[in-house]
Structure formats: structure tokens, C-alpha cells
């Protein structure tokens, strides 16, 4: 999965979402070690302080666990993992539903289209 910056939200929040997405699709599994802060900054081509903020936030959320102030691992807490997946699903659905309503597509039409396309 490729990380692409947008101008809609702070970069540290985009990093958090990127990690969550990688977890949900299985690129990062429970217990996996995440790259060091420096490695992540280089990989994503962003400022080290931005990555440090993202890691701190993820630690506060319980998404990652940091050991000895440097090595961080993905949580193994099943509830957190399920909540992350549901959060990403709900975010996508909200945008989709807003877009469908904006172009006056009915709920029934949406269901029919999804049934055909999925």
C-alpha cells in the first residue's frame, strides 16, 4: 500500500490512518514490529517529528505498544483491531452515502448497484 499525502488533514493523522489501513488489509499483523520512527520518516518522506507525533497518538490509542522507548509493535488486542476495521468502514460509508445523497440516488438504487457490482 502506497502512502500519498493530501492537503485535507494533518500529516500525522494521515500516517495513523495509513498504519490502520495496513493493519486491516493484513500488511501489518498483531504483534508485528513497525518501522522505527526514523525509518518511517524516510519511507514516507515526512519530518521525523511528525512521525513521532503519530506514533505517540497511536500509543495513546493502544494501536501500538512501544518498548524501551524505541521498538513499537502492533497491538494484539482483538477489540482494538475490530474497532479499527469498523472505524475505517464507517468513514468510507459516510463519504459514500453523502455522495449518493448529493446526486439524489435512493437507498434502493444504491443497494441494487452494490449487489450488481460487488
Question: In words, what does this structure look like?
Answer:
- By secondary structure, the chain is mostly helical.
- The protein has a single domain, classed as Winged helix-like DNA-binding domain superfamily/Winged helix DNA-binding domain (Arc Repressor Mutant, subunit A, Orthogonal Bundle), CATH 1.10.10.
- It has five helices and three strands.
- The protein has a three-stranded antiparallel beta sheet.
- Helix 1 (11-24) crosses helix 4 and helix 2 crosses helix 3.
- The mean pLDDT is 95.
Approximate helicity band: 55-70%
Strand order of the largest sheet: 1-3-2
User: CATH architecture, please?
Assistant: Orthogonal Bundle
Give the averaged pLDDT, no decimals. 95
Described by the principal axes of the CA atoms, the overall outline is elongated
Our Rg estimate from Cα atoms comes to 17 Å
Report the uncertain regions: none
Strand content: 5-15%
> What series of H and E elements makes up the topology?
HEHHEEHH
Q: Total number of β-strand segments? A: 3
Let me know the CATH homologous superfamily.
Answer: Winged helix-like DNA-binding domain superfamily/Winged helix DNA-binding domain
Number of individual domains: 1
Q: Could you tell me how far the N terminus lies from the C terminus, measured between alpha carbons in angstroms?
A: 22 Å
Number of helices: 5
CATH topology name: Arc Repressor Mutant, subunit A
CATH class wording = Mainly Alpha
